[in-house]
Amino acid sequence: MSFSDLRFIFYALPVFVLLHTVMPSKARNALLFLGSLAIYAFGAGLEAAGILLGLTLINYLFGRWMSHEEKSMRRAFLGLALSLNFGALFFFKYLSFLLGVLDPIIGTDFSFLHIAMPLGVSFYLFQMIAYLIDVCHGTVEAEDNLIDFGAFVSAFPQLTMGPILRYGDVRAALKERKPGREDIEQGFQLFSIGLAFKVLLADQLAYLWVVLERIGFDYISTPLAWLGAVGYSLQLYFDFQGYSLMAVGLGRMLALPVARNFDEPYLSRSVSDFYRRWHMTLGSWFRDYLYIPLGGSRNGTGRTLLSLAVVWLLTGLWHGPTPNYLIWGGVLFVFIALEKLFLRRAFGKLKVLPHIYCIFVIVQTWIVFRIDNISDLAAYFRRLYPFFGDDSAINHGDFVKYLGSYWWLFAIGIFLCLPWPRRWYERARGNALVWIPLFVFFWVSIYFLSTGSGSAFLYFRF
Questions:
Q1: 235-288 residue pLDDT tens
Q2: 137, 319, 355, 396: the active-site residue
Q3: What's the 3-state SS for the chain?
Q4: How does pLDDT run across 33-76, given as a tens digit for each residue?
């Protein structure tokens, strides 16, 4: 069930928070585990909930087995567990695509085989994989209590789109949570801000991209193509940032520390800096469990570039099997490699140019991220750079038309990407006056949702 679903906001959430607050401390994890499974099943289906429950039990058992073995046996168990987890990820996320590619090549027909990807499988499998690696290395102790482990894995604030939690960061809170009035109030504030980001900004900006698709990428002007690229960059940010703020707010209501996932990424000075600030928990997962074990930056330039290439190609593949994600990951690797080799030194102490460079690159990579059809992707870049095409767009006045409709959303979005709104909120959130605009934003968001103006979170497909 989506956080922006009215049934979640007005039924599931109030009932859950009320029960969680009045329930004895020892019973809260059982409520969190079973209640989260129920919420997940309502939105994703009983089959997906059964898969989540089965994978939770399997990984719990592997953690327990590793905790009683010597180092060599722990590694053997870890290898088997990783094979099962990555095998499950491949089966649900990539097998259908692979069979579709193979059908015309080997003359088979697998159209009868329909594999539905469970909602959030990429996120919760990565979370359990990190737990097992930490147990194997002795970073955390294996969890003895199945209910507590299940609460960690399936906690609904982060289940379907992250952030990807580390067990060592939440274990103490899981064992003893005492949510108070301040937790619920501040949690609801963050939830309301995230809801407004999603419904009032991301969903409204989404209409611009719908318009571009309806017109056809071959027929938009170059200025409109750039406007669409910036618009999608803002839409994606406020869609995912909105969800992440809602997740942090829900965690706060339950006294559960849900990690922050964004740190003003559009203020970055480089592409590598951008991805230290964007989707921070996924980036730290790849850094700690792949980049550093591969050697990181400790073994010379060649090894560093190889490690980066593996990380970014797998990051692209994590998002999906279509070629655009691999191209997206490959392009990011090229720019990050160039930064390490040349650009970081060239930019030196420059203040403005690095920011312009970063935004210029990131906005275009989001287009690669968005368009999964290669011919459509090529058409869009022909519009961005018309001197590479054989013709020119005919709608020369389209930019003025759509800028006139969307300029105020762009202005608000760009302003909210700056550090000042967040700093003001962190200073003023204890002030009762903060509740007035939040009250308005919340109910305006509810109005938009009630009229069918909302849409699914973009990261739900991952």
A1: 999 999 999 999 999 999 999 999 989 999 999 999 999 999 999 999 999 999
A2: 319
A3: CCCCCHHHHHHHHHHHHHHHHHCCHHHHHHHHHHHHHHHHHHHHCHHHHHHHHHHHHHHHHHHHHHHCCCHHHHHHHHHHHHHHHHHHHHHHHCHHHHHHHHHHHHCCCCCCCCCCCCCCHHHHHHHHHHHHHHHHHCCCCCCCCHHHHHHHHHCCCCCCCCCCCCHHHHHHHHHCCCCCHHHHHHHHHHHHHHHHHHHHHHHHHHHHHHHHHHHCHHHCCHHHHHHHHHHHHHHHHHHHHHHHHHHHHHHHHCCCCCCCCCCCHHHCCCHHHHHHHCCHHHHHHHHHHHHCCCCCCCCHHHHHHHHHHHHHHHHHHHHCCCHHHHHHHHHHHHHHHHHHHHHHHHHCCCCCHHHHHHHHHHHHHHHHHHCCCHHHHHHHHHHHCHHHCCCCCCCCCHHHHHHHHHHHHHHHHHHHCCHHHHHHHHHHCCCHHHHHHHHHHHHHHHHHHHCCCCCCCHHHHC
A4: 999 999 999 988 999 999 999 999 999 999 999 988 788 899 99
- The model carries a pTM of 0.93
Annotated active-site residue 279? The verdict is: no
